[in-house]
Amino acid sequence: MSITINIYYTGEKGNARKFAEEMISSGIVNDIRAEHGNLKYEYFFPFENDNTLLLIDTWESEEALDRHHASPMMSKIIELREKYDLRMVVERYISDKVGIPDKDKNFIRE
């Protein structure tokens, strides 16, 4: 069972993008991706909203996510969120082992 967290960061004057740029340039993103249990850590920008950044963050288990939250990395992330005055909306998803049902696979083009 993996856990996916979608975090929508919103800020003014391009601050969400600046946050992502600093997360990447400082090496924090690479450090998070290297943490045991991290399966995905990627940023996306919604087409119709220049002030929002979407982070898709996936962990192999609750324990892996808890270790990440307890790591010194979190204080760096919190510091940058404060620096860029970002607000957050968080969605959390837990995967099932079933995957995509056969009846839905007809709608997917690979």
What does this 3D model show about the protein?
This protein has helices at 15-25, 28-34, 62-70, 73-83, 102-105, and strands at 3-10, 38-44, 52-59, 87-94. 38% of the residues lie in helices and 28% in strands. The chain has a four-stranded antiparallel beta sheet. The radius of gyration is 15 Å and the shape is globular. It is built from five helices and four strands. By secondary structure, it is α+β, with helices and mostly antiparallel strands. The chain has a single domain (3-96), classed as Alpha-Beta Plaits (2-Layer Sandwich). Strand 2 and strand 3 form a beta hairpin.
* Chain-averaged pLDDT: 93
Low-confidence region ranges: none
Number of helices: 5
Q: Give the C-level CATH assignment.
A: Alpha Beta
Summed up:
The chain is α+β, with helices and mostly antiparallel strands and 110 residues long.
Write the layout of secondary structure elements.
Elements: E1 3-10, H1 15-25, H2 28-34, E2 38-44, E3 52-59, H3 62-70, H4 73-83, E4 87-94, H5 102-105
Antiparallel strand pairs: 1-3, 1-4, 2-3
Looking at this protein, list some descriptive labels.
110 residues; alpha+beta; Alpha-Beta Plaits; 4-stranded antiparallel sheet; 4 strands; 28% strand; globular
